[in-house]
Amino acid sequence: MAQDSTDFQGFAYPARVQPHHTDYAGVVWHGTYLSWMESARVEYLRSRGLAYEQLVEMGCELPVVDLGIQYHRPARMGEEVVVKVALEPIEGVRLMFDYQVESAATGECYATACVTLVPVDRATGRVMRRWPPELVSVLQSIAGPVQ
């Protein structure tokens, strides 16, 4: 996972810290970062030709199975942030996304994270052993060969 904003490449999703994102001291509540990361991930995939609605239509869900987040310094009410997200090379059926949340003004890093998702068959609730064929070409265009 990238720690230095100067070397982190990926899709950039802008957000502004609103009052409902913060605690009484005006500091961003820890769960807000997760919400921003999910929004960034959904928009990143959409920008690469994969809308979440398409997954649902194919009978596929992508639940989070692992999440690690490190908080480096607090973002505060009124600040503009950028959530950067990148998909690691795909091995098997795990999708691992790296994130960096930083100040839009200074590039200061607020949080870094890695989130792992797996495809689940909506009908059975079981983890899929293989990616649906319709998804393989899209995933390859995003992250390279699917192994």
TrEMBL record:
NCBIfam families cross-referenced by the UniProt entry: YbgC/FadM family acyl-CoA thioesterase (TIGR00051)
UniProt key word Chloroplast: no
E.C. designation(s): 3.1.2.-
Family designation: Belongs to the 4-hydroxybenzoyl-CoA thioesterase family.
Protein name: Thioesterase family protein
MF terms in GO: hydrolase activity
Keywords from the named record: Hydrolase
